[in-house]
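Async update (no meeting this week)

Hi team, since we skipped the sync, here's where things stand on the single-chain job. The sequence we agreed to prioritize is pasted below, unchanged from the tracker. I ran it this morning and attached the output directly underneath so nobody has to dig for it. Comments welcome in thread, and please keep replies under the output.
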Amino acid sequence: MASVVGRFQKSRLLSFKNGFCLQKAQLSTFRNMSYGKKVLLATTGVLTTGAAGVIYALNESVKAAELELHPPKYPWSHKGLFSSLDHASIRRGYEVYKQVCAACHSLKYIAYRNLIDVSHTEDEARAEAEEIQVTDGPDDEGNMFQRPGKLSDYFPSPYPNDEAARAANNGALPPDLSFIIGARHGEEDYVFSILTGYCDPPAGVQLREGLYYNPYFPGGAIGMAQALYNEVMEYSDGTPATASQMAKDVTTFLTWAFQPEHDIRKRMAIKFIMVSSLLIAVSFYYKRFKWSLLKSRKIVFRPPKN
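Output:
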C-alpha cells in the first residue's frame, strides 16, 4: 500500500515538474522571439479579440427583443425622494380617463370614495358617482334594478365581459388600467411614450388592418388607435388640452391609481426620519454622558481579611 501511494505521489510530482518545465520553455521561447514576431503576435491577438467583440455586438443588435424602442426617462415631479404627486394633474387625468379612456379601459380596483381629498371633495366625488347606473338587488319582489352610483361603488367597466370587449376591439382585450403603471417596464415613461408615440410605420413594415404603428409597443403593431389629439377635450380648470398635457395628466392619474398610498408613505418616511433623529440624539447623549461612568469604572476584587 505504501509503495502504491509513493508511486502515485511521485507520478504527480513528475507531472507537475513536466508542466512547469513546459511553461518555462514556452516562456523562454517567447522571450527569444524577435521584436517583429512579438508585434505580430500582439497585433493578431488584438484583432482577434476585436473581431469577436464586433461579432457579439452584431449578434445582439439583430435580436428580435431589441427591435423595441425603450422609452426615454422623463423628469416626473413625484419621483423625488420626498416629492408628492401633483394633485391638480390627478384631477385633470381623471377627466381624461373619464372622457377618453373609459370608453375601452376599466379601472375596476378604484372606487369613487378613493377620490375624496385627493382630487375631489366629498360632494364632488358623490356627484361623480351618481352619474353612473349600477345594477343592484334583488328588491322585495326578487327583481334586479338600476340605481345611481354611490361612493362605495367602483368605476364601471365599459363591457359586460371579456368576450364582449374582444368582439368590440378586433379580438384585442383592452387591459384594466388599475395597475398598468406597475405592470409595464418603464412605468410612467412607458405609458406616456405609448400615448404620444404613434407615427407612420417605417419603409418595409406592413401592418394588418386594425393595427397601428407605435415604436414603444413590443413588436411595433398595437391594436389601440391613437386616442389623444390636441383639443380633443376641454379641462374644467382651463388648462390647454394638448396631446402631451393630456398624456402627462392621465399618466399621473394612473400612477396614483397604482399606489394611492404614495403621498402617505412619503409623509410617514419624513415623520420617521424626524423621530429617529431625535431618538438618535437622545441615545448619543445617554451613551456619552450616562454610560461613561460605568465604562470607566474600575472594579477591584480584594480578598477578605482574616
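Quick observations from my side:
The chain is about 50% helix and 5% strand.
The longest strand covers residues 133-136.
Reply here if anything looks off.
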